[in-house]
Amino acid sequence: MSEIRFRPGTGKTGKRSPVVGGRYGFSDSFSYLRKAGTHRKTWNLWLQRGKGRLFSRSCQLVSESLRLGSKSQLAGKTPGVVFAIAAAIRAFTRKGDHVLLQQPVYYPFSEVITDNDRVLVNNPLKLADGHYEIDFQDFEEKIVANDVKLFLLCNPHNPVGRVWTEWELRRLGDICLKHGVLVVSDEIHSDFTYPGFQHQVFASLSPDYAAITVTCTAPSKTFNLAGLQVSNIFISDAGLRRKFKQAIAAAGYSQVNLMGLVACQAAYEEGEDWLLQLKEYLAGNLAFVREYLQERIPEIRLIEPEGTYLLWLDFRGLHLSEEERGGADCKEGTVMA
Fold first, then answer.
1. Please, are residues 311 and 283 in contact by the beta-carbon 8 Å criterion?
2. pLDDT, average across residues 261-269
3. Would you place residue 115 in the very low, low, confident or very high pLDDT band (cuts 50, 70, 90)?
4. Across 81-212, where does the E strand assignment appear?
């Protein structure tokens, strides 16, 4: 066995990373990957240890799938969630079809819709009482009026920081079931929720929801591994899973990044202490920004996040002109930080 040792690193938390400087090595040098089963073994071993809970929601999804005897639900690994969303758009819609999202939302959502010659339909989130809400009436009306085929759900939501509640997700799910809309649920921020808020896996709320859903997770946000390009994609329905895999194959993607797989395994097996310290660090950042704005720039309002590591700031109190806003990524005076 050939082994690569990384230089130990600690990052901002002061905790040694479970990935950098770990005990994990690479077999067969850097040849093509022949088996990805190591990760299934990792998640099975974690369950057998009887730890009771899994610290990572992404790892929970994999483990719950295995525990239920349905490891085939793990549709595969992709080099990223955006790649998976693009593949789902090509697999489940045709050119000219309408795909719905909820802006403001992670900007690649819009790009993968238009870049694949689909039509973007926006169900804008509403800012009310200091947090964002879903306009369910507009959501259903847009679906019907545009014959929407696919809905891109961001849960937790990037960038406004909402952790959607069970009743909100169920209402979305019921509307999608009623009108035959498939759902791609990006749950990459699921490990980042603040006290008092619980992430709900959309597909876990009902077998009917699971049958129309592609669930996307990854260790990349949680453990800062985006450059190693590995994501976990779950699809319960065999027909949808087959179409999705065909779209991946058609893109010419056959070999997942070996270093990404090893990093994913290391993070899920040994990353709990690091993640707990990271969440404390992020809570400290939030407290600092909250206090700073209140004391020095009270015109800028912090939209209190329920989850994610992002902050969404409301600059409208400064009454800036379009020229003064310059290149800020905002249309109505809000911006991500």
1. no
2. 84
3. very high
4. 98-101, 119-122, 126-128, 131-133, 150-154, 182-186
Cis check for the bond before 104: say yes or no (omega within 30 of 0).
Answer: yes
Structure tokens at 72: 């085939």
Instruction: Measure CA 218 to chain center.
Output: 7
Backbone φ, ψ for residue 261 (5° rounding) = -65, -45
Position of tokens 């709320």? 205
CA dist 60 and 111 (Å) reads 30
Q: Tell me the C-alpha distance between 4 and 23, whole Å.
A: 9
Grade residue 38 by pLDDT with cuts at 50, 70 and 90: low
**Nearest Cα to Cα of residue 56 among 192, 155, 183, 173:** 192
- Residue ranges of E strands in the chain: 74-78, 98-101, 119-122, 126-128, 131-133, 150-154, 182-186, 213-217, 231-235, 301-303, 312-314, 334-336
CA distance 213 to 316: 37
CA distances from 81 to 4, 185, 186, 207 (A): 27, 10, 7, 23
Strand-strand pairing, 213-217 and 231-235: antiparallel
Per-residue confidence (pLDDT) for residue 325, from 0 to 100: 79
| Cβ contact 53:214 at 8 Å | no
- Owner of token pair 């850097």: 30
**Rounded CA separation 279/287 (Å):** 12
